[in-house]
Amino acid sequence: MDSYHSLAPLNALLNGCATVLLLAGFIFIKNGWVRAHRACMIGAMGFSAAFLTSYLVYHYNVGNVHFSGEGWVRSLYFSILIPHVILAGAIVPLVFATIWFALRGNFKRHRRIARWTWPLWMYVSVTGVIVYLMLYRIYTPIYPPTVVAQSASR
Fold this sequence. Notes:
By secondary structure, this protein is mainly α. It has helices at residues 2-5, 7-30, 34-62, 72-103, 107-138, 145-152. Helix content is 84%, strand content 0%.
């Protein structure tokens, strides 16, 4: 578990970096700085791809970590987590379509789909960091029994 345990904060860092680049890219395009926008969005895609890879490796090896908060905060956590998970799955094809239209020079369709992609991608990135903070930093995570047993045997 120890070698994979460090991937959880890395995932939050990668999400945070994607968030900063998404925000900067938005500001750049609003100011007409197309090259800076393009660089930020490609960077955000890179950080998000690195996040997804790290996230899958982490959960393949660690499993599902349970939230230990109780009462109203548990409801708050799941009200953030559930849309985060649903939109995280939906955002992948939207990002690819948005980037595809930009790379093909079809900026009319790029702008049309980016109006949906950008806010959803921002939501997923920001709530990913919030979920990490709530699950691992504010409350004590509850690891699956197999992970705890494996780390105890080392």
